[in-house]
Design goal:
Pfam families: Asparaginase_2. It contains nine helices and 13 strands. The protein is of the alpha+beta class. A hairpin with a 4-residue loop joins strand 2 and strand 3. The structure holds aspartic acid (ASP).
Amino acid sequence: MILLANSEAWPGFVETVDRLNAGEHGLGAMVAGISKVEHEVSVRSVGLGGWPNMLGEMEFDAGVMDGTTRDVGSVGALRDILPAAALAQAVMQRLPHVMLTGDGARRFAQEIGFPLENTLFDDSKRVWWARLEKELTPEQLAAFPYIPLAPLSRTITDPERVRDTTVFLCRDGSTGIHAATSTSGWAWKYPGRLGDSPIPGAGFYADSRYGAAACTHTGEMTMRCGTARTVVLAMRLGHSLGDAVKLAVDELSELSTGFLGGVVIHAIDAQENHKVVSFRCGEGIEYWLWQTGMPGPERRLAETL
Ligand code: ASP
């Protein structure tokens, strides 16, 4: 067995390891771990600790994929409901659809018993409003939110606000390879913006025969390249894990227009090798790894490409 997750995963990583060791299906084990991450307010990019959109509303994106059946469930721009990855799993299990967004996702959550929650943490609200006070004129502030929001799009590059996602990939005791993601997306994003985390093929993909991949950081790039699917398809076509990730990085580096930034690719193969590569995100990107035989999870440094 192998479990790979990014640095934000710490509140739920051991929970997932324990469940994998107990023989649980890998997807359920990862969703249980991610639920813990989503409720940990000190993780400032996922769930309750994440950042709101420009209107000060928390909007969550999450996705899950069962690599044995290639079933997928995802939710996007989900308000007032957590855990989002668990809801994505319920979409997969209970509906003939793959993805629900916005009001529909919230309605479905309530129908199946998820309570409405206040998901805007006080500190996030304070920082959001302070940022608006810095960006807007007194006239704009007085008229807010009835002002055009598009000119505020530059706020998504707020250097003081990290943006990230929690991504989990595993190969479980039944040789199933699965993927799960959850995020509040980019701080101060335009309302309704979906990142790559709920988009199968972009932010996550899994196929038990070959491997799985999941991405963090600039979803606006991985959605254009289908990055997670590229990695898994390249392995299907015979590339090694390392070559598959390199191919996906080459595709990202070919982009020259639109919003460009960094991407971190996390990937595993069916032989339980793993690779975590930081593309234009600099050094110091960390991730969590556990494999059968390890006494406990290890925190490691990603390669830079
Ligand atoms: N990839 C996520 C998104 O684009 C955010 C992140 O992981 O930093 O929403």
